[in-house]
Design goal:
Blueprint: H1 5-25, E1 32-37, E2 43-48, H2 49-73, H3 84-109, H4 113-135, H5 149-153, H6 155-182, H7 187-215
Helix pairs in contact: 1-2, 1-3, 2-3, 3-4, 4-6, 6-7
Length: about 230
C-alpha cells in the first residue's frame, strides 16, 4: 500500500492543527481541563494542563501511525491493496473525529462547553455514517472491520456481513444525529443503544451467514445486496 503526501495531507493537516492549538493555548489554559464526558454530555473527568492539552493530539498521532503500520504486519497484507482508497478514507475519518473531540476540549477551556456538548453526538453520528458507507468495501484482514470467528473463516461471510453491517452503521448514525437535533435529552442513550445493537447484529448476522454457507442453505435473507 503506497503512502504519499497527496494521500496523507488531510490527516497531517488535522494532526498539525491539533498540536498548534495545544501549543498556543498553553500560556492561558486553566490548570484543570476536561478530558471525559458522561452520557449527558457533561464533563465529569479533568486532567492537568499538560495531559488536557496534549492527550488527544498525541493519541490521534499514535492511532494514525498504528493505522499506517497495520498493513505491514498483517498476514493478509496484500488485501489492503484491494481497499486502499477505503482505508485512506477511514484513516482521515478517524483522525478528523479526534480533531472534533479536541475541538470540544478547546471550546470547553474557552467557556463554550455547551456548544461542545451539542457537537459531540453529531460528530459520533457522522462517523457512524461514514464508516457504514465504506464498510462493505473492506476486504478480509486481521485488524480492520467486523472480525468474528465466522467472518475470518470465510471471505464470502466477511463480504456479506460487512455489507449488512454497513447499513446498520448508517442507520445508527442517522438515528443519533436526528435524536440530537430533535430531542437531545435522549441522544446519548440512543447512541449507546444503537452501538450495542450494531455490535450484536454484526455477531449474529456473521454467525447465521456462516451457518447457512456450511449447510448449503445460501445466505440469510437480505433486502440490500450491494455495497453501502
Amino acid at each position: 500500500m503506497k503512502i504519499s503526501w497527496r494521500t496523507e495531507i488531510a490527516s497531517w493537516a488535522i494532526l498539525g492543527a491539533m498540536f498548534v492549538l495545544a501549543a498556543t493555548a498553553w500560556s492561558w489554559a486553566p490548570d484543570q481541563i476536561p478530558t471525559h464526558w458522561n452520557l449527558q454530555g457533561q464533563a465529569d473527568g479533568y486532567s492537568g494542563k499538560a495531559v488536557g492539552l496534549f492527550l488527544f493530539p498525541c493519541t490521534a498521532l499514535a492511532v494514525y501511525l498504528l493505522l499506517l503500520l497495520l498493513p505491514l504486519i498483517d498476514p493478509k497484507r496484500l488485501n489492503y491493496q484491494k481497499f486502499a482508497g477505503t482505508y485512506r478514507v477511514l484513516r482521515v475519518a478517524l483522525i478528523a473525529f479526534f480533531g472534533v473531540i479536541y475541538g470540544i476540549v478547546q471550546l470547553s477551556i474557552r467557556g463554550q462547553s455547551a456548544l461542545g456538548t451539542a457537537i459531540l453526538p453529531l460528530a459520533i453520528g457522522a462517523l457512524f455514517v461514514v464508516l457504514g458507507n465504506y464498510m462493505g468495501k473492506i476486504r478480509p484482514n486481521w485488524f480492520i472491520g467486523v472480525r468474528t470467528p465466522w467472518t475470518l473463516s470465510s471471505p464470502r461471510v466477511w463480504t456479506k456481513t460487512h455489507r449488512q453491517c454497513g447499513w446498520a452503521f448508517v442507520i445508527a448514525g442517522i438515528l443519533v444525529i436526528l435524536t440530537d437535533l430533535l430531542m437531545n435529552t435522549w441522544t446519548y442513550y440512543v447512541l449507546l443503544g444503537t452501538a450495542i445493537a450494531s455490535v450484536l447484529y454484526a455477531y449474529a448476522y456473521s454467525y447465521f451467514a456462516w451457518r447457512a454457507e456450511k449447510t448449503g442453505g445460501g445466505e440469510p435473507e437480505s433486502t440490500h445486496g450491494g455495497d453501502t
